Amino acid sequence: MSAKDVYCPIPWMFQAVRNNGDVRICCQANVTKNQGVVRKADGSSYNAGKDDMDEARNGELMKTVRKNILAGRWSAECGRCKKEEESGLISRRQYEQEWGFKLEDAIKITQEDGSIKTDDTPLVYYDLRFGNLCNLKCRMCGPTDSHSWYEDWLALHGGQGFDDTHGYVKLQKNQKGRLETSDYDWHNSESFWKSIEKNIPNMQHVYMAGGEPLMIEKHYDFLQKCIDMGQAEKMILEYNTNMTNLQPRVLELWKKFKTVKVGASIDGIGNVLEYQRHPAKWRIVKKNIETVDKLDKNIHAWLTCTVTTVNVFHIPEFIKWKIMESGLKKFNSGKKLPVLTIHVAHSPSHACIKVLPSDMKELVKQKYNEFKQWLVDENIDEKYAKASIKILNSITDYMMSDNEKSGWNWFREYTRILDIRRNQNILDIVPEYAPYFNDGPVSDTSSMAQIDMNIKERELKFNEQERIKT
Question: Are strands 125-129 and 161-164 parallel, antiparallel or unpaired?
């Protein structure tokens, strides 16, 4: 394997910041235990709220990944892209080949130890996640991605908090009795904003996710600074947004930028979306999608679908809606990704479709094959038919590539508990799972009561710990 086969420009001209402010290689690197976080010699993480962002660019992990790429080796942190490419999916590495920064440029500026001169190679591409403020608590996420997850997380796992890459996050109750932490407020740091503002003249592309970026007040301040400094008209903004909070002011700000790319995190239609991304409302999300679809030409958009154990059976119906019923013109209108932009959930384990029992995997394949035949029988436009078939094949290839049975039992327990807490029912979304939930909250009220009691006991224990502490 040569350097050309694994080359990715990200380690040279890009910087990513996690929700807690920790600097990492890129968002795809979360497949390792370290989650791609760049660390100092003492093992602590570089954090955008308090550390030198330039120094982090030459952390040991950054240097190692660069050396591996130039030697034609996959780093463990790049494992997600490797697996996706092997399954026929389009990986993040492949998306980024459009950058003008080529392999020859990387070779030229990289020292023998993998370091680069940061002054000579300014950052042009950022991945910024301004904390974990979010109004949804998606089934494949957790408290590091959304503060709305706190109560449900403790109900599922017990304890007083959760682990993140910077350590254990202990939750406290505020005066209103709600759980909170200041660990995700790093973006209020003056040193971070000075570093960012200093580099605005070099910025070409800024990707923002969450939490929910359109809820973050500092995000609006940042956009205005880019406009005031005259850089907006040269910049590409890119979002991963749940499309529940589309404010008029952001539509006005977007008009000033060269290009705005909106990745709408939509995993299905109707009750499928509302179940997987609780408590989203499909009518609101659909209305906001339709608003974006009518915006100026500088707005590009796509539907970003995360395939999980919840919506894997729904993908054909979602594709059919997009092609035949949605009426959307702007979303997924490019040549590369017509129809939908698909990502499979690699983690957490309960969301990964590899954990499905073999009979469920066969049902998925059967449903997909029937839909592929429907595409032919209905004489669907070849462009859409081919793209749809490629999507379905890549999902099944990934699903069948491993058999991770151990995660299935946790999926069942996790689903039962959340269904009770959220007043939902997995069998309304995936009736195919009935054989595996016939002893759960759907048909066994004693089982429901026991699970509910376990949740209440955990919450009472936490409340008692809080009382003793104060």
Answer: unpaired
Dihedrals phi, psi of 164, to nearest 5 degrees: -135, 180
User: Strand 341-344 relative to strand 299-307: parallel, antiparallel, unpaired?
Assistant: parallel
11, exposed or middle or buried, with CB in 10 Å at 0-12, 13-18, 19+?
buried
Whole-number Å distance between alpha carbons of 331 and 255:
18
**Contact status, residue 437 vs residue 427, Cβ threshold 8 Å:** yes
What is the pTM (predicted TM-score) of this model? 0.84
- Whether residue 367 contacts residue 396, with contact meaning beta carbons closer than 8 Å, is answered with no
Q: pLDDT tens digits for 423-436?
A: 999 999 999 999 99
Q: Can you tell me the distance from the alpha carbon of 40 to that of 16, in angstroms, rounded to the nearest whole number?
A: 16
Q: What is the DSSP annotation of 369-437?
A: HHHHHHHHHTT--HHHHHHHHHHHHHHHHHHHT---THHHHHHHHHHHHHHHHHT--HHHH-GGGGGGS
User: Going by DSSP bridges, is the β-strand pair 179-180/172-173 parallel, antiparallel, or unpaired?
Assistant: antiparallel
Q: Please identify which residue in the block is written with the tokens 């990387």.
A: 106
Torsion angle of alpha carbons 316, 320, 322, 325, nearest 10°?
Answer: -150
Residue with tokens 């009795």: 177
Alpha-carbon Rg for the chain, nearest whole angstrom, is: 23
Using CA atoms, how far residue 76 sits from 37, 62, 141, 245, in Å, is 12, 12, 22, 36
| Residues 380-389: contacts with CB under 8 Å, at least 24 apart | 380/323, 381/323, 383/338, 384/323, 384/338, 384/339, 387/337, 387/338, 387/339, 388/319, 388/323, 388/339
Q: How confident is the model over 301-348, as pLDDT tens digits? A: 999 999 999 999 999 999 999 999 999 999 999 877 789 999 999 889
Q: 154-190, pLDDT tens digit by residue? A: 999 989 999 999 999 999 999 888 999 999 999 889 8
DSSP 310: T
Cβ proximity of 336 and 383 under 8 Å = no
**Do 169 and 181 meet the contact criterion of CB atoms below 8 Å apart?**
yes
